[in-house]
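Dig into my protein:

:::
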Amino acid sequence: MIGIGVGKRGAAARAAPRAEHARLGPHDANAVTAVDPFYAGADSLFVRAYDAFYRSEPPQIAGDVAFYAKLAHASGGRVLELACGTGRVTLALAERGFDITGIDVSEGMLTMARRKAAACPDAVRDRLTLVHQDMTRLDLPARFGFAFVPFRSFQHLLTIELQRAALAATKRHLVPDGRLALHLFDPRLDLLSGAATLPAEISGADPATGHRFVGEILRTRFDHLAQIRRDVWRYRELNSTRTVVADETREMALRWTYRHELRHLLELCGFAVEAEYGNFVDGPPAYGEELIVVARSKPSS
């Protein structure tokens, strides 16, 4: 869900019963979020802009869909995507034949995902379940062979306690020896100290309306003790004549996690790290690149 990374290539972070296509819209009324609600609101400017920013070609994170598909195939069984957002990866995996459940704490994001799913063939929708839940309070009736948290969304969990709660909940929903993949950014210290700046803005267009969305960071503050970066974003929507039709400001908070810290956290939560990568084409870990970790659920003692 996160649309900003603090790595070299970073841009300026939920199985339901299979009743007839109602599976696309289960809602947990008790899904009180532990995550910063940046993307709240079914038709908010922030949700619509997010979908425009990250549906474009080439994708912001090249190769992630193929990477998750390979792991899902190797792991077998159902697939669980935590923080599925507007369904960019979820729908792509369903189209590739995987039985996938996507959960998200933002009803606005899920609304957008459901709209896109409604346009898919029946065979794709039959493999897809979308559920409104918080990953730290995950409660689903199924178990999965593979789970993943894409696009740095794990970093919306701002404390170690929330991170551990999410990992514990995920482990409970994995089959024995099930796999988990996490995508974060490998922290660049210059970007976390204010010595360097991120790209000035990001933009994307809605293919249906032709409207262009622009996001820019107005100011940033750091809590280095808690490892939290807070960016105040300004989002604007421009029509075909470049007139601004919507303009809103909201703060996004994310927590950075160091590579060895993440490995230790996974081990504490009952996972054995199998592999680490610096990109989605199996490149080795590298400072300031992507931080991708694949771990296997260990038997409970």
Remarks:
- Residues 1-33 have pLDDT under 50 and may be disordered.
- The chain has one domain: 1-301.
